[in-house]
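[Discussion] Sanity-checking designs against the backbone

I'm trying to build intuition for which residues belong where. Below is a C-alpha cell string of 112 positions. I'd appreciate it if someone posts a full sequence so I can compare it with mine line by line.
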C-alpha cells in the first residue's frame, strides 16, 4: 500500500476531490497547511506598512491506496491541480506497512 501526499493550492481542492471520487477513491484526509517552496514568501502592504509573509497557505491531501492505483491517483491529482505557475505544489508517496480499519479491525487492502 502507498500513502499518497499532495500539497496543492487551496482553489484546486474541489477539482482534486471530484476527480478522486470519480476514480473510486473512498476516503482521503484534507489538512490546511502553510509553507513555502521555490517561490518563498512574499511581501504585502497593509495601511502603509510593508511586511513579509514567510509561508503560503496550502492544502495537504492524503490518500491511502493500493500500489496498483498509485500512478493513476498521482496523475489525477496532477491533472486537477496543475496551473503551470510556480507554487502549484508537490506530490509524493510513502510505503505503508499496515493499515487497520479501527471500527472493524480489517487489515491491509480490506481496510481501504
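Best answer:
Here's mine. Compare freely.
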Amino acid at each position: 500500500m502507498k500513502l499518497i501526499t499532495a500539497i496543492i493550492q487551496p482553489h484546486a481542492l474541489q477539482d482534486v476531490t471530484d476527480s478522486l471520487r470519480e476514480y473510486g477513491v473512498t476516503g482521503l484526509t484534507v489538512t490546511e497547511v502553510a509553507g513555502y517552496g521555490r517561490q518563498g514568501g512574499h511581501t504585502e502592504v497593509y495601511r502603509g506598512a510593508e511586511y513579509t509573509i514567510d509561508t503560503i497557505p496550502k492544502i495537504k491531501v492524503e490518500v491511502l491506496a493500493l500500489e496498483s492505483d498509485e500512478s493513476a491517483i498521482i496523475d489525477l491529482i496532477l491533472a486537477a491541480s496543475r496551473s503551470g505557475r510556480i507554487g502549484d505544489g508537490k506530490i509524493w508517496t510513502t510505503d505503508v506497512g499496515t493499515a487497520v480499519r479501527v471500527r472493524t479491525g480489517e487489515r491491509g487492502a480490506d481496510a481501504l
